[in-house]
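ARCHIVE CARD
Drawer: 12
Card no.: 0347
Subject: one protein chain, sequence and derived structure
Cross-reference: see card 0346
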Amino acid sequence: MSERTAHVDTFARDRLPPPELAPDLDWSSSPVYPARLNAATELLDGALRRGWGDRVAFREGEGAVTYAELLTRASRVASMLVNEHGLVPGGRVLLRAPNTIGLVVAWFAVLKAGGIVVATMPMLRARELTYIVEKAKVSLALCDEALEEELAHAGCRTVLRLGELEARSASASPEFSGVDTAADDIALIAFTSGTTGLAKGAMHFHRDLLVVADLFSPEILKPTMDDVFCGSPPIAFTFGLGALLLFPMRVGASTVLVAKPTPDALLCAIARDKATIVFTAPTMFRALCEIVAKYDLRSLTKAVSAGETLPAVTYEAWRKATGIRIIDGLGSTEMLHIVVACAGDDIRPGATGKALRGYEVRVVDDELRTVPPGTVGRLAVRGPTGCRYLDDPARQRQYVQDGWNLTGDAYMMDADGYFWFQARADDMIVSAGYNISGPEVEAVLLEHPKVKECAVVSAPDEARGFIVKAFVVLRDPTHASDATTKELQEHVKATIAPYKYPRAIAYVDALPKTENGKMQRYKLRAPPPAD
């Protein structure tokens, strides 16, 4: 952090972790970047310097945008945000939209203007958005018209409709030069669920956005400019950001965006636009296997999975249906993207993979001592990216210890250096690729007048890997019924993102606790399903 910052608004920079809580960064096996770097300028303006201006960058349904058109549109929006809405370098801008070309334009516009992107998942509700707005001190939001209702109650001072940005910025200059940010100026605050129930804001630099594209992609994915990317993860999710924006744009490839990626919609887009690479979660791969025979997927050559552990049975089902081996990956919002993976003949079904070049990955005990191969322990990672929570020293201490990033996963490494997922080491529930905080769901259930106590844990599920399961003590036990279950589920759906609702609810007389009253959730968890 020695380079002079371009940020006029230093709110986020001032709330980086102190040096003693910062992750150790190892650049010995990573590309070297200049001290002054704007990721949007490098990806967009750089594309034109490389002669890619006429190439299609993004497709959406019948529409498409070239690299040159994307640069012009993003530059006009950046000019408007600066000149009409006072965006200064370091200002946080909330983005709320499904995967559309409009979202991509807005993402690049904010970064070119030196702002900090705060992208949010489309399914978040007003309560969650309010927390993000307050935590990141967001005053400006760019929102898809269909998602305005929940954001209207979040307290953001100015909300602009994405669909109106083109008209509003038509007279703005297309010659907007990207702000001369430092490589270690913050470009992104990605909010992820936490075990305390409150979202955590993981901050990443402009340099970080390029390094993940320059490590995982060329080593594991090996894309070319002729590849066509497609997938289901939202760009607001860092898995989707890399998969659908950073990786393809780094090599001059194109991306097919699917705003509502149901299994049929995703396969239809792959077949229609002849996609060659697909990114999604294991749950979606399982759903795709059921209907894949209906579509012409001869263009598809690669598939990448992340977001939750990939069972061997899902890997084999997809390979049998398509002939394609799934590249599994372990990453986190805190690390920005994938840090463990394998491809091709190196893949071992059921194993996540090996440490990515540039990252050191270990399995350690509670004292951070490396354990022998075959021993289950905590996964510890360090490399050129790392965890930097926004103004959250308590949880920073939990995630970063002695410079190592502790992902919260329990893993085993075999004698050949392959990592095998065992379980989540905390109260996070990973269901269908979504990270869900058990305590957050508990807090919402406890607001219901019928609920006296509750505990929320993960439960194994054949289709989704794991589901959210709630154990509930009712104030009146006679209310235990299917009707009450539906009532509680609808209460959760209406309060927080619908994917977090408990798909199973069990009514109990009491919950297991220690003598001092601490909940013993581990006694409620069932063992994971066997492959």
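Annotation on reverse: The chain has a mean pLDDT of 93. The chain has 15 helices and 25 strands.
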